[in-house]
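The instructor's notes for this session suggest beginning with a concrete chain rather than abstract definitions. Hand out the sequence below and ask the class to guess, before any prediction is shown, which regions might be ordered.
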Amino acid sequence: MKDYTSKIKRQSEILGLIIDPNKCYTIGDLADKFNCEELTIKRDLQELRMEGIAVHSSGKKGIKLQIEINSDKLTEILSNYASLTIHKNTVFRATKLFIKKHGLKSLSIMTMLQSAIGNRQIVEIDYKKPDSNKSDTRIIEPQVIYESENSWRMLATHNGILKQFVFNRILDVKETGKEEYCVKLKFMPPWAERYRPRILIENQKITDELDGNFILEMHVNSLNEVASWVVSRGKGVTVLEPKELKKLVIELANGAVGNYR
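After discussion, reveal the predicted structure:
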């Protein structure tokens, strides 16, 4: 397995070198650079050609790419290379630190948060404040998990604001169940004309009114995203139900206006 991953890594790096039009690499140059036999480089080039990559050696002129690599193939190459190099190393360090901090519970925290993202669930976390031994409880909507600066991190919506959370500070995760709200919005000009033919959400119900406006009814698990969306539309979209959503929209709108007072 190690030999296979080393080969994929080397072949990707060979391509990365030879596509530079200002540089020239012969088979001997690459053999020296990768500390291997020339026969190994020749096999690499042959395998790349079998993959549909038009790479050829022309003696002293060096190895050149004769036909540009298409975007799908380039995406595949970059993804494989990243998984074997950058991503692999940083994820390993982040995971080791996470396990050192939380032990077996690290698996529970990771899987529960990822499950919440997949199922669009709201969860409750106990989160340790920076530079403090105290923690507080936060209701969040996890959006995406990623690695940065040797730590697992998460973007999640909290009180209508997208925030970053560091996994090493998460002490516990609890399910809250899916919160389902029946939302009713009224669309008026200019949004009525723009959104009537569109499907905004899978379970929506649209009721046309005589004046050209329409009422959209739908069930959602979270009000925060809907509130942000309504505020971003400005005039022309009004919340009819529920009261909690009206309150959120007013708070967000007042907060935005407050920036200019």
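Then share the key points. The chain has a mean pLDDT of 84. The chain has three domains: 2-84, 89-175, 181-258.
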